[in-house]
Structure formats: C-alpha cells, structure tokens
Amino acid sequence: MRLYHVRWALAMAMAWVSSEATTYSPVKPPSYPLAVRSPYLSAWIPGNHIASLPTSNSQFWAGNDLTWSVIARVDGVAYNLFGVAKAPDGTKSASVTGATYTSTHSTFTLEAGSRKFTLDFFSPVSPKNYVRQSLPFSYLTVTVSAGDSSVVQIYSDIDDSWTGQSSNSRWSSSTKGSTSLFQIQAVGAATYSQNHDGQALWGSAIYATRPSGGSSLSTASGPSASVRKHFVDKGSLDGKHPDWSSGGVVGFVHDLGTTSKKASVTFAVGHEREKSIDFLGTDQTGYYRSKFPETADAVSHFLDDYTDANDESTRLDKLIQDLGTSTYGTNYSDILALSVRQVYGGIEVTIPNESKDTSKTSAFIKEISSDGNINTVDVIYATFPIFYILSPDYLKLLLRPVFEYMRLDDYTKTYAVHELGANYPNATGHPADGEEMPIEESGNIIILAYAYEKATGNKDLTNTYAAQLEQYANYLHQHGLYPASQLSLNDALGTLANQTNLGVKAAVGLATYGALTGQKNYTTAGKQFADRIWTDHLGTDDHGTRFLIQYNTKPWFLVFNHYPDVLFDLNVFPKETYNATAKFYPTVRGLAGVALHGSLGWGQTNWQAFVAATVDGNAREVFISDIHAYIANGQNSAPFSDRYWVEAKNGHIVGQSYAFRARPTLGSHFALAALKGANLWSS
Fold first, then answer.
1. What number is the average pLDDT over the span 293-319?
2. Are strands 95-101 and 23-25 parallel, antiparallel or unpaired?
3. Is residue 631 part of a domain?
C-alpha cells in the first residue's frame, strides 16, 4: 500500500473517532438501517447523527425527515431517547454510549438517569420464508436494563410524514386481541402514485404494539406538543383520538411501573398497500396476504412472530459474519453486514391480489434513487451474488415477470428488455423512449438464468423460456463482438461503440448459454470472442497489460463482466487475463480506490466487488480495503451509496459518495463470498 493511502485512511479514521464518547461496532457507517423492508418502508439515520440520537430525526431513504420518537420516564423525569427534534419542556436528553449493526439489527445504547436503555431496530431478512419476508413491518424494541427500583414508562410515536403527504391525511385506531394499532393514510392519493421523494402516496402507515412484561398500555393521537406533554407530565396518555390535524402524532405509552428488572417493549412500524404492484394491468399484493388478508391480523401475527424471526436473524447474522470473515477477513464481513438489509429492502415479494395464488409468486425490485425503474435487468445482475448464496429462487421470481413481458406481442425487439417499466411500482412495460441496452441485457438474462439453475438444480425457468434464451444468445453471437454504439449498464458514460466490457459480456454470455444448454458451439463462440478481445489485443493495450474502455483507444477500464466466467468456472478467458488485471489495477488506484475507468474520478463499489472476485493477492486487498475505508470514513450520510469519489476532481472531495442512495445493487458485494458456493442458507 502506498504511503499516501495509509495517511488518507488514518486521517479519515481520526476525523470521526476524535473525542466522541459513543463507541461504534464494527464501524460507524454512513447511515444505519432502522426500518428497511421495502422501497416504501425505508427509514434510516446517518451515522454522524448517532451521538445526538435523542434529538435527531430518522430519514426516508431520500433524506427527508420522518417523525419517529422515543421518550422514557425514570422516576418522573422524562428523557428523550430518539427522534425528539423539539424537546418538550422539562425533558432531558439521554447520553448515547454505543451503536452496533449486524445484518438485521441496528442497536443503540443510552443512559437516562439511573437506568440504561437499548433501542433495537430490527428489520427481519428471511431469504426463503416469503410470508415473513413480505410482511411490510419492522420492529423497534426498547429495553430498560436491570437496576434500582425505578418507576419506568416508555413513550413512542410516529406521524403522517410516513404517508408521503402531510397536507391532508386521516388516522384511525383499532385493536386486535391485545394488539393496539394506528393507521395513517394520505387522503385522495391515486393508487400507484409517489411523491417527489419516492414515498408511496397510497396505502397506510402502521404503528402498533401490545402490553409486554407486565406493562400497561395507553394511547392517544393529536398535536404532537400536547400528546408528548401529557406523557411528560403524567407518564401516560389520555386515550383521546380526535380527527387528524397537521403536525399530529399517534402515540403509545407502556407503563412498566416500579421495576428493578430488565424489561422490554416492542413496537411494529410499517407501510402497507393492499394493491402493491401493477404488473401489466394485474394488481399484485404482498405474499403475506395469502395468510393474513386483514391488516390487523397481519400486524398481530408480526408481533407474535418476533421470537422466531429474531432466532432466524441470529442465525443469519452469524452466517454473514462467518462467511465474510472466512472469505476475506472482518473488513469484508463489515461490508456484507451493512449490505444485506439494503438489498432485501429494495424488493417486494407478491402474488395476484384477486386470486392470492401463491403458485404465481413474483418479486419486484426498485432501482432506488437512480431512476426508479422496476425490475431493471442490469440491476438484478448487479445484485445477483447475494441471491446466489442466500435465496436463488429470487432470481426466478425477479426474472419471470421479465420473461412473461418479453413473450408478449407488444415486445418486438430481438434482444432482451432493459426493464419492466420506467416508474416503480408500475410494471406496465418498457416505454417507447426507455433505455436500450441490447448486448448488456441479453447477456445478463442468460447469466442470471444459469445462476438460478446452477444454484438450485432446477430447470423450470430455462425450460419455460428456452426460445427467448436462444434468441438472445443468437443476438450476442451476431452483434456481440463489435457492439454498435449503445448504452452499457454504466449509462452515465453515454452511448459508445465497441465497448470492451460489452464484448466481454457477449463472450461470457455465449459460453454461459453453452453451459446452460450443453451446446458446445456457443461455448466455442464465446471463447473465440475472448481470443479476439484478449489474445489478439482487440480490447487491450498492445502488450495485454490492461483492458480499454473501447477497442483501439487509450483509456483503461475496470472490466467486471469477467466475473461470471470465474464464478461458473467457464474458462472463457485464460488465467493470464486475470494475472494481468491483478497486476494492473493497483497501479491506477486513486487516493480512495480504483475508478471505473482512466478518465473518471469516481468508482463504484458494485464493480470493485465483482473485480475483487476475479483477482487475488494485493489487488484483492486493494478493492476490499478501499470499500471498507469508504464506509468507515465518516464523510457520508446517505444510505450506502455504491458510487463515490476516489479522487478529488471537479471540486469533489475524496471519499465522498456521489449521486446514489440506498440502491439494492449492494448484492454485488457478495461476489467474492459466492465463490465459496451457492444456496448456503437453509430456512
């Protein structure tokens, strides 16, 4: 490692460690996932706000504030624990002592008077349990530690910021058995509509809880100042629920009474939409509604399921930690753990709303923050390593709607489609003016279909859509070696002809199709493409030391489309290819990482992670350590942006994120771990 890299890493570490009293484990990330379960239930808090957690708002993935507060009374003194941006008179702020994240939990510890409190934000990730994974709720558990015999009450509320529309809403309260719940809805919003921040305007924000550990429960709704003041003064709520008013909250109080023992209370926060996706004119709904069609039943089950969901999360957290550490050390496991919720929180598992037929299960992924497309094929490609390891059936669930659309007469192209619609949740078909990526998506669809089959041993996807796969393989054969001017999945680069990375995609895609079908002529064609690109230096410099962005040009390019060649052990490109890139990339490493190509100042963690799986030695260390330094440098607040500045260029600061937020493409970070094997998770 060059000395200035060491100095930069140390400087960034010192910038956020400084004299803070709060400890962070394993690192302080750019943003902590709080309630991240779908594109519309996506609450975060920046890492740099944790020291001021009592007065800091949670945020939707886009960065707009969400009201979500927790206040505790200890022997009559009220302490703000979380999200109380305007502290009520007579309250104090608790002291934040620690922050931890795993694959499924973000946990914060605080001291309030004589007692210690823990806030555990738990977003279940259940890769193979579709009911659990599709439930659009997340847990917040507030625990008071054992201590002196204090009188303890715990208050929490949310408001209409969760509906995406604060100018006109309504709320209601109800009970189901011991479960009390509030629903807040925007009024007059169209189904399948969003606001400018990407929040759903239809459906309901949900807040629910039930008595726990001997607590008594009281509720209220109304203006936030008066509801919170009543708690601060009385330690309870008055049970009044007037009509909605702007700035109003819905709140709960758990009165634990006099206790010296450890005690916990759990809240469920969520956003539910009966009609969740428009798939070619057919309304889809969450898979969980096959079991729990009514909201109250679904929320009640979610709270009932806490113990089992938490037991599963403990096993999953351990798997991710062990897998990352055994693959490439704790730096790598830190990256993986921070990526998991962001991936699964960008996806919804659905069934037809009318029939509730689980044999027609699908999944839909949102291209969060970049352009909002739905089931973008190259986004699925960027994400697929995590599915390959944890839930390969997701590849089928995501691809099947794409294949079904491409079978329609409405889709007339001879190459694979880019996405299913320009604006999530409207999977209504590729727009006439939408992006086209002929080589990219034709190669991706073949690679993804093979990844599913190789990981599961199931041929149902490839048998059903054999004609389409053959068509796209033939398109690669006819057009892939010398790609016409077109976009690649790095569409920020614009349309370019003869892109080396697209030629590599065609070569690997053809060989993958050969492996998929047993037709060796396609494998041979892929290797012939590779020979032209590598051996004949069509896509490299004259000495074969590096790949170029375009044939016969000078700028080098971070070629990541080699990854399936390595993952599937296809041997399309010779080992010398990977030896050369392993030597080259460290020589062009910027101050904070390797750029996407030679004339750019930014890099993408997606493709750095893909390339890390194709190289070894010092080159692999470069990629993993740089991604880790980026997430721990204390300069960023956006939910794990996969694009960041590796050099100070055009006024941008080294190590700062660039453009994207909360995208589910972080499944790419599992590329190296996927070399250990497929389908490693058992439900």
1. 98
2. parallel
3. no
- Answer yes or no: are the C-beta atoms of 71 and 91 closer than 8 Å: yes
Distance, CA of 223 to CA of 226 (rounded, Å):
6
Summarised one tens digit per residue, pLDDT across range 612-641 is: 999 999 999 999 999 999 999 999 999 999
CA gap 247, 394 in Å, rounded: 40
Question: Last residue of a domain, which of 585, 602, 617?
Answer: 585
* Separation of alpha carbons 581 and 568, rounded Å: 19
Give the H/E segment covering residue 270: strand 263-272
Contact 509, 443 (CB under 8 A): yes
SS3 99: strand
Q: Which pLDDT belongs to residue 683?
A: 76
- For a pLDDT cut of 90, what percent of the chain falls above it? 93
Positive/negative CA dihedral, 118, 119, 121, 126: positive
CA atoms 405, 406, 412, 413: torsion sign: positive
Q: What is the model's pLDDT at position 20?
A: 63
Is there a single domain that holds both residue 72 and residue 140?
A: yes
Q: Is residue 319 part of a domain?
A: no
Alpha helices for 457-574 (secondary structure H):
460-464, 466-479, 500-517, 520-530, 563-567
Pull the structure tokens for residue 145: 């530690």
294 in a domain, yes or no?
yes
End-to-end CA distance of the chain: 41
For the chain, the C-alpha Rg in angstroms (whole number) is: 26
Confidence of residue 213 (pLDDT cuts 50, 70, 90): confident
pLDDT tens across 353-372, in order?
A: 999 999 999 999 999 999 99
